[in-house]
Structure formats: structure tokens, C-alpha cells
What does this fold into?
Amino acid sequence: MRRYLAMLMSALLAACSPSSPPPAQKPPKPQAEQAAPARAELGSAAWYAWVDERLHITDDGHGPDRGSDEWNHAVQHKLGQEAPQSPIGSPQWQQAVDALLRTRPAL
It folds into this structure.
């Protein structure tokens, strides 16, 4: 009987508890994601500018051209051990870089 009562109480508590917090109480998006271009296509000028801003690849306009092999290798170097293992500059690499930068704090 006690076991049945305990199971009933657990079921009632679970049924009465909200499954997700109301929209006003949801945690804010990470800062990195907020700063990311909303719809910038991977490999676009806006995406390269965002990655450059996050990792500080160029310095006052000096440095490798965004999207060049040299620039891609600089991104790989800045990411260090977190860097994707896909071929550098490939669409898979860009996708992995994008996902990583959206979840980590800015440098």
C-alpha cells in the first residue's frame, strides 16, 4: 500500500510540474550566439567577417584575405586543440568552426 501511495504521489507531482519553463524564464542565448550573423551562409563574406571578429585573425585590415588558405590555417591555429579535424576550408570544416564559435565565449 505504501509503495502504491508513493508511486501515486510521484505521478501526481510529475503531472502537475511544467515540462518547460515559460518563455519569459528561459535562459538567454549565449553571448557568442547572439553576436553571430542570424542567416549568414557558411563561406559568405558576412560569415568570414564574423569568424574574423571572433578570433581576431586580421589586425586593422592587415593579414591574410578572408577565406584564403592562409586565413583558414590561421583560424585552425587560433582554435588550437578544439579545431575541427575536417580538411581545412572544406564545408564540413566551416560547419564545425561555426558550431564551435557559437558555443564558446569570444576571445
Remarks:
- The chain has a mean pLDDT of 79.
- The chain has five helices and no strands.
